[in-house]
Design goal:
Number of helices: 7
Protein name: AMP-binding enzyme C-terminal domain-containing protein
Distance between the termini: 60 Å
Structural class: alpha+beta
CATH superfamily of the largest domain: ANL, C-terminal domain
CATH class of the largest domain: Alpha Beta
Strand content: 25-35%
InterPro entries: AMP-bd_C_sf (IPR045851)
């Protein structure tokens, strides 16, 4: 069983004032979520609770439950207008699609604990102590939340998703150094590189999965019959990389 980790001095003296929140009776609250396994203490992450739709959601408990079902993930709550929105970042080196993970999450977590949004990343940002970088994860969620708000307020959907993604990937690759500098200013270089790489991978995956526009609806032919695969035009960022690597 996992729970909140409290600590106290072995000599009975009070903890240094202000270092950790006082939990009463000489105990101090570390803010960590932990359990004892085979006599050894295992810290699972930071304790976090948010209230949404009348339910008190224990984000650390959600992560632990998901991990027990083979889903390594980090959950954060973003405050805003109305109810908090819960973002779940799933770590998956294979970068399987969100619907794949959504199906598992819906099976593992109760209805009231379902995240509002799920994002798949190749690797979660981590601190020097190899803990999940909560500040970085929360910053990622805030940026995604702001982008979502801008898209909703704009109200105009792109005519061709693939063309828009093509353009975004090209610009992100061209401005990679500048993006790294911006992300590093909010954290550290290693996390910034991981986050930028994950962002680019997500864009590429989205480009592959995006609905084809009318300009790209040609089908390949196999023995006179259309195959299940479609011919997507070579993206401009792929062409630029190919030409750059050519002698």
């Amino acid at each position: 069983m996992a729970g909140r980790l409290l600590v106290r001095r072995t000599d009975g003296r009070p903890m240094a004032h202000g270092r950790l929140p006082d939990a009463g009776d000489g105990w101090a609250d570390t803010g960590d979520y932990a359990s004892v396994v085979d006599g050894r203490l295992r810290v699972h992450g930071r304790f976090g609770v948010t209230q949404r739709n009348g339910y008190l959601l224990d984000l650390a408990a959600m992560e632990l439950r998901l991990l027990s079902h083979g889903v390594p993930a980090a959950a954060v709550a973003i405050e805003g207008e109305g109810e908090p929105r819960v973002w779940l970042f799933v770590e998956d080196e294979l970068r399987r699609a969100v619907p794949f993970w959504r199906g598992i999450v819906e099976h593992v977590l109760p209805a009231e604990a379902q995240p509002n949004h799920i994002e798949v990343v190749g690797k979660l940002p981590r601190t020097a102590a190899d803990k999940v970088g909560r500040d970085r994860v929360r910053a990622m969620a805030r940026r995604l939340e702001r982008g979502r708000a801008v898209r909703m307020s704009d109200g105009a959907a792109p005519a061709d998703d693939a063309e828009l993604l093509d353009h975004l990937i090209l610009r992100a690759r061209d401005r990679g150094d500048r993006l790294l500098d911006i992300l590093t200013a909010a954290g550290d270089r290693a996390s910034a590189e991981t986050e930028l790489e994950s962002f680019l991978d997500v864009l590429v995956d989205a480009y592959v999965d995006a609905p084809l526009g009318r300009r790209a609806r040609a089908r390949t032919m196999t023995r006179g019959r259309p195959s299940s695969s479609c011919c997507r035009p070579t993206p401009c960022w792929s062409r630029s990389l190919s030409s750059a690597s050519s002698p």
